[in-house]
Amino acid sequence: MEGLFAILVVVGIVAVIYIFVTVAEKRNLKKAAEGIDKEKVERAVAAALPGEYGYKTLYAHWEERRRYGRTVETSYYHYAIAFKPDHFWVMPLHLNGENVTVSAPSHYSGEALGYIDIEPYRTRKKDQLVVLDTRLYDTPGCLYLTLSACSTEPKSDSSFFNLLQQEECDGFYETLRSLAAQVNPSHSFIEEGLSHKKGGQNRKKALTAALLAFFLSFIPIFSIPAACYSIYWALKVRQTGGRSTGILVLAAVGLLSSIGLIVVFVLSEMSLLL
């Protein structure tokens, strides 16, 4: 009975957190629909690009973590993007109270780029673009800018504003695709290096999570998420031509062991009640 009570307490806490997050999200979406923050960004961009017309404006940001021993330092970068079908500008964005300003814009076109790495994330049901991660490389293959734009941008630690920018995300994605088709084929060595690097990073994530799932299989609340995380990244490794069979087996063992413990626990509690 004590075990069942503990489960109910945990479920109750999770439910309260879910309700709190849902209410906050709805409040932010309502503010985003009013378009006040979007107008601030657009005005700042217009002031930085006098004489330019016909562009669309997009807000983007990036979150970078650096580790110094046990200390983790997080830096947040904010950008305003003005784009047309064949080129775009990126300008660092600043918020001082209610005042939105941007620094000098940097211009990007096919001639200035060596490689464009685009990672779009879409909803499964409606196939809508929800997150657009972009990495821009120069011709030698050095990364010099990373951007992340969301179709729905709620205000948070990493985001200044409440924004709805589905149309802008779709438009910028098409601009990037068009530019990538021009510049990427002539710099294939950059793509090969990125593919190898991503495969190694994904393998490391998958292996770490699989080990956690295996050795913590007696704690299902930790093991099950770790196993699912491991399986996800192990499949990513396979997509890039890497091997991950051993990792998948290790994660599956941890997952099945945890599920087995839960089944045994529930059956034992039910037998006590009956």
Fold topology:
Elements: H1 2-34, H2 36-48, E1 56-68, E2 71-84, E3 87-96, E4 99-102, E5 106-108, E6 115-122, E7 129-137, E8 143-150, E9 152-153, E10 163-164, H3 166-183, H4 188-215, H5 220-239, H6 245-273
Antiparallel strand pairs: 1-2, 2-3, 3-4, 3-5, 6-7, 7-8, 9-10
Which word captures the global form?
globular
Distance between the termini: 12 Å
Q: Indicate the radius of gyration in whole angstroms.
A: 23 Å
- Main sheet: strands, sense, barrel: 5 strands, antiparallel
Structural class: alpha+beta
H/E element sequence: HHEEEEEEEEEEHHHH
Q: Which residue ranges are poorly predicted, with pLDDT under 50 across at least 5 consecutive positions?
A: none
Mean of residue pLDDT values: 84
Number of H/I helices: 6
> Using DSSP, what is the number of strands?
10
Strand content bin: 25-35%
Helix content: 40-55%
Keywords:
274 residues, alpha+beta, 5-stranded antiparallel β-sheet, 6 helices, 10 strands, 51% helix
What does this structure look like?
There is one protein chain. With 274 residues, this protein is of the alpha+beta class. 51% of the residues lie in helices and 27% in strands. The chain contains 6 helices and 10 strands; from the N terminus they run ααββββββββββαααα. It has helices spanning 2-34, 36-48, 166-183, 188-215, 220-239, 245-273; strands at 56-68, 71-84, 87-96, 99-102, 106-108, 115-122, 129-137, 143-150, 152-153, 163-164. Strands 1, 2, 3, 4 and 5 form a 5-stranded antiparallel β-sheet that branches. The longest helix has 33 residues, at 2-34. The radius of gyration is 23 Å and the shape is globular. The relative contact order is 0.10. The model has no long low-confidence stretch (mean pLDDT 84).
